[in-house]
Amino acid sequence: MKISEIGEFGFIDAVKEGTLFNPSSVVVGIGDDGAVYKTTEGMEQIAVIDTMVEGSHFIIGKTASWFDVGYKAVASNLSDIAAMGGIPTHIVLSTAIPTDMEMADLTALYEGMKDICKTYGVNIIGGDTVLSKGALVITVAAFGEVESGKAICRSGAKPGDVVAVSHTIGDSAGGLDVLLHGIDGYTHLKKAHQFPTPQIQLGRALVAYRAHSLNDISDGLASESNEIAKASGVDLILDKEAIPCSEELRQWAQSVQKDIYAYVFNGGEDYELIFTMAPDDFEALRREYPYVTAIGQARAGKGQVYVRHEGKTSVLQPTGWNHFHR
Amino acid sequence: MKISEIGEFGFIDAVKEGTLFNPSSVVVGIGDDGAVYKTTEGMEQIAVIDTMVEGSHFIIGKTASWFDVGYKAVASNLSDIAAMGGIPTHIVLSTAIPTDMEMADLTALYEGMKDICKTYGVNIIGGDTVLSKGALVITVAAFGEVESGKAICRSGAKPGDVVAVSHTIGDSAGGLDVLLHGIDGYTHLKKAHQFPTPQIQLGRALVAYRAHSLNDISDGLASESNEIAKASGVDLILDKEAIPCSEELRQWAQSVQKDIYAYVFNGGEDYELIFTMAPDDFEALRREYPYVTAIGQARAGKGQVYVRHEGKTSVLQPTGWNHFHR
């Protein structure tokens, strides 16, 4: 059945079940002019918004299924909340849907959103649905909470800070390349691209361990590290060899004879975290979260990023993943 | 200059000035991974989201300018907050922009958003910008507050309630017709279509005067009245002659020999309010807000809407303005 046959209200009825995964704070959910929810005393609210466009951010049947698209549309938003040190609580979403889209595909899109919302106890409290003359456009706005005054901005890096990242970097861009080439295997890379894990728990730990600055790596390490350097007015010196890369990414880069650092610095959509903090706090964090790795230091400067490699130091330009230029 | 030449970061820099019109509650505005804001003790939060698609919701140069589109994209969201009885506080927005769009047009779009945000003291705290392969798609998510437990839902209508609306109904659909015909004059109708006024002050008064149910009229009176009847499980009996219509709409309907009630019942985007309340409370409200008009009564029933006219009563189907079917 096509979406144009079932209509907006029929569609809302079909997807509105099973949307509350932490209902205690929801006063009014889907089905009225607006959603109403309670906030927690002593917490500030976080709001983020992110859009994915079919054919630009994903190619159905090649880089993603409709389920994956729903999952990732939410994941990228939850990652932005993790990048402030917050706990995600609710989302509202909007889809501009091609007239001839199959209901089964649209249902899969919503199942992907519900899947990740269930994992993180996030409520889907509202939405809008319109017809698109072109490709599908999905926008998710997510809300979260963080203890008052404790949100971690990109502008707080201080000279002497350790610069660190979570897990391995560049896997999502590697996975995208694998998918575009239609190659079997490389399941870790593909999963990194299709089902990124928002680093919510680590974001919360970074609040507890007093991290000074924090970004999620959505536009590549080059772009994100430069944002921290520029916003904080400090220089970051990264040690190229220290940046954690997965074995699969090394294998893939070698098999296509591509520089692995193109994925690491200029890839995107890793949704890992890059952060800076005092060395002692970092050591304490690392004992609890062994998947964080120091990749450099912050020092007084003018907001530049440098990469050290085999005794040479070069400037790292912010040129990264920029959907605007695709 | 085209948007593709200036890039995402250049564009954000160009529009991020002058976005906070009530900054006291904003901890982190545009420019980090997420926005952070404070809420007011004793208040619950409202969230709404609404999308407009070029060519479907508006035709540039015919039904709207880019400024108008920005204004209306926010207005429709503020109207949804008014329809819960709330005070709008912040918005986040996302635009999927055609590659060849002129920066001047995009700037006009943002000026329209800033204009209405300034009027209502609403902060623009975040956004996302991506390139569209097709038409422009703009999504706004708006937040607001309402005293805990006081949000007015569509489900609260009670037998004996007065059914009432604000101002006049059908003007926006009339204005759209005038614009599509390219006719001069009819400034009231055109303004109703291009610059709808979210009824925030009235929504707040409806909280104070204990209204039982409330919708904004975004999809036509037939659809909205049926939503209240169905959600509340009561019948609404509307008096056709009592529904307030503007003189301009009468003139326009006569000049094109169209039934005025096609605009009234099945038009859309009026962004006026329809509500039900106890008769005594309505009388008190009307003394303070003379632009509200009683158009019928609620009575025990099965969730139907009836229209009385010249001694006859007929069922009013919910068929209204439905963007899904355009």
TrEMBL record, chains A, B:
Annotated ATP binding sites: Y110, G127, D128, R154, S218
Chain ranges of the PurM-like C-terminal domain: 158-304
GO BP annotations listed: thiamine biosynthetic process; thiamine diphosphate biosynthetic process
Superkingdom of origin: Bacteria
Chain positions recorded as Mg(2+) 2 binding sites: D50, D80
Binding site for Mg(2+) 3: D33, D80, D216
Presence of keyword Translocase: no
Domain PurM-like N-terminal: 31-146
CDD domains associated with the record: ThiL
Annotated residues for binding of Mg(2+) 1: D50, D128
Residues involved in substrate binding: H57, E269, W321
EC class: transferase
EC number(s) recorded for this UniProt protein: 2.7.4.16
Role this protein plays: Catalyzes the ATP-dependent phosphorylation of thiamine-monophosphate (TMP) to form thiamine-pyrophosphate (TPP), the active form of vitamin B1.
Family of this protein: Belongs to the thiamine-monophosphate kinase family.
Note: Reaction mechanism of ThiL seems to utilize a direct, inline transfer of the gamma-phosphate of ATP to TMP rather than a phosphorylated enzyme intermediate.
Matching NCBIfam families: thiL
Record protein name field: Thiamine-monophosphate kinase
Organism: Megasphaera stantonii
Originating gene: thiL
